[in-house]
Amino acid sequence: AHAAAADRAAAVAEAEGREAERAAGQVEELAREAIVSARQQRGEVLSKHHDRVVRLEREVAQAVDSSKWKIQEVVALALFAERTSTDTTEAAHLEAQRRVAS
Questions:
Q1: 102 vs 83: CA distance, rounded Å
Q2: Residue 57 and residue 85: Cα distance in Å, rounded?
Q3: How far is CA 47 from CA 10, 40, 56, 97, in A?
Q4: What residues contact 19, with CB distance under 8 A and at least 6 apart?
Q5: Quick one: pLDDT at residue 32?
């Protein structure tokens, strides 16, 4: 009777061991799937951030180019105003000299 009880206990222990191995295999498979999913999500997040960084870099470059054109326009207008002012001053000076000479 003791031997039969021991055999039953061994069979139960063996069945429980197989069940534990099966459960451990399922946990391992779920862990692998979770790792793959996490890697995919990380890749998607990095891709989104990369795309955003590239877009922002492009916007900054466009803003810098636009600013350069605006600065060039302001410089050109300043030079034109200076030239016009100088021409007007010279013309007024020459007109004054002509009047004094006449």
A1: 28
A2: 41
A3: 55, 10, 14, 74
A4: none
A5: 92
Quote the tokens at residue 44: 């998607």
pLDDT by position in tens, the chain (length 102): 778 888 888 888 889 989 999 999 999 999 999 999 998 998 888 888 888 888 989 999 998 888 888 888 888 888 888 888 777 788 788 888 888 887
Q: Distance between the two ends of the chain, CA-based, in angstroms?
A: 148
Q: What is the pTM of this model?
A: 0.43
How does DSSP assign 63-80, residue by residue? HHHHHHHHHHHHHHHHHH
Residues in the chain: 102
Residue environment code for 21-58, b if the CB has 16+ CB neighbours within 10 A, otherwise e: eeeeeeeeeeeeeeeeeeeeeeeeeeeeeeeeeeeeee
Q: What is the DSSP letter of 1?
A: -
Percentage helix, strand, coil for the chain under 3-state DSSP, each rounded to 5? 100, 0, 0
